[in-house]
Specification:
289 residues; alpha/beta; two-stranded antiparallel ribbon; 14 helices; 10% strand; binds adenosine-3'-5'-diphosphate; EC 2.8.2.-; Sulfotransferase_dom; catecholamine metabolism; P-loop_NTPase; transferase
C-alpha cells in the first residue's frame, strides 16, 4: 500500500489502492453507489489480463453475433469501465449491460453484493501480466514511466502499481460469498481454445449462438484481426494519452513472453513471492503445471 505522500502526480488514492487520475478523477465518486441490475454482466480482471479481448467477445455473445457494436462503438463505450465512466452513461445502457472493472471484490458497488449479476473473471500468468504491464506503462502517458524491467518488477511485487498487488486482486475474487455467479477463465485457455471458452461463456450466460455465428465471432476475435479494429485498438485516442509508437496496445498477444524478459534470478524471486502471497488458496499455478 502506498501513502499519499508517495503518490506521483498522475495518481489518486482510493481505499488503499492508487488509480490513474485520468478518467477516474471525475467518475470514481459515483462508483460505490452505482446501481447494479440483475442481468448485468461484469468482466473483472487485474490490468493486462485480457480485458479488451473480452470487451470484444461479450457483446457478440450477448447479441447473437451482430457485429455492429464492435465495428462502430469504441470498446470503452461498448463495454465501459465502471470506475472510469460517468454513471449517467452506464445508467442509460440497454440491458443486458456488460461492463468491465479492475476493482477488487470488496470495493465493488454496494448493490453488487446482493444482486444476481454475473461475473467473468480472467486470470493470466502473472509473469506475462508483468511484461504486458511494463510495456503498457511505456506507452500510456497517464501512468508513471516504468523504469527498467527489474525496477518495474519490484514495484509490481510490492503492489506499487495501479490497482495494487496482483495476488490481492486474485484472492479477493476467490471469496466464497460469490457462489456460482462467477466464471473463472484463464487467458491461456483463450489462447489455446477460444471457441471452447466462448461455448463455456454462452452456457454460463444462458445464451445460444449458431455454429456459423460462433465461427464468425471466433475469427473476428483473433489477435491478428482485432489489432486492426480501430474501435478496439486505441488508435482513436490521442498520442499524448497512449503512444503506440512506443509499444502498441495489441503488442504480442501470446502466452509465455515472460521468457524473453525474466532472468533466472528474477523468475525465482517472482515465483517465491507470488507463492508466498497465495499460500493456502489452493490455486494451481502456471509454474506448477
Ligand atoms: P500483451 O501486451 O502481452 O500483448 P488488457 O486488455 O487487460 O489490458 O490486456 C492486454 C493484453 O491482452 C495484451 O497483451 C494484448 O495484446 C492482449 N490481447 C488483447 N486482445 C487479444 C487477442 N485477441 N488475442 C490475444 N491476446 C490479446
Amino acid at each position: 500500500m502506498m501513502s499519499d505522500q508517495q503518490l506521483s502526480q498522475k495518481y489518486l488514492a482510493y481505499h488503499g489502492l492508487f488509480l490513474p487520475k485520468c478518467g477516474y478523477e471525475d467518475n470514481i465518486k459515483d462508483f460505490k453507489t452505482f446501481k447494479v441490475q440483475e442481468d448485468d454482466v461484469f468482466v473483472i480482471t487485474y490490468p493486462k489480463s485480457g480485458t479488451v479481448w473480452m470487451q470484444e467477445i461479450i457483446p457478440l455473445l450477448l447479441n447473437g453475433g451482430d457485429f455492429t457494436p464492435v465495428q462502430t462503438i469504441p470498446n470503452w463505450e461498448r463495454v465501459p469501465w465502471l470506475e472510469a465512466t460517468p454513471a449517467l452513461f452506464v445508467d442509460k445502457m440497454i440491458s443486458p449491460r456488460a461492463m468491465v472493472s479492475h476493482m477488487p471484490y470488496h470495493l465493488m458497488p454496494s448493490s453488487f453484493f446482493s444482486s444476481k449479476a454475473k461475473i467473468i473473471y480472467i486470470t493470466r500468468d502473472p509473469r506475462d501480466v508483468l511484461v504486458s504491464s511494463f510495456h503498457f506503462h511505456r506507452m500510456a502517458n497517464f501512468l508513471d514511466d516504468p523504469g527498467t524491467f527489474e525496477e518495474f518488477a519490484a514495484k509490481f511485487l510490492a503492489g506499487k502499481v495501479f490497482y495494487g498487488k496482483w495476488a490481492d486482486h486474485v484472492k479477493s475474487w476467490r471469496n466464497p460469498d460469490i457462489g456460482d455467479r462467477i466464471l473463472y477463465i484463464k487467458y491461456e485457455e483463450m489462447i489455446q481454445d477460444l471457441r471452447g471458452v466462448m461455448e463455456c461463456i454462452l452456457c454460463f450466460l444462458g445464451k445460444q449462438l449458431s455454429e456459423d455465428a460462433l465461427d464468425r465471432v471466433y475469427e473476428h476475435c483473433q489477435f491478428k484481426n482485432m489489432k486492426h479494429n480501430k474501435m478496439s485498438n486505441y488508435s482513436l485516442v490521442p498520442e499524448n494519452f497512449m503512444d503506440s509508437s512506443k509499444s502498441p496496445f495489441f503488442r504480442k498477444g501470446i502466452a509465455g513472453d515472460w521468457k524473453n524478459h525474466f532472468s533466472p534470478e528474477l523468475e525465482a524471486k517472482f515465483i517465491a513471492a507470488i507463492n508466498e502471497e497465495m499460500k493456502g488458496y489452493g490455486i494451481r499455478f502456471y509454474w506448477d503445471e
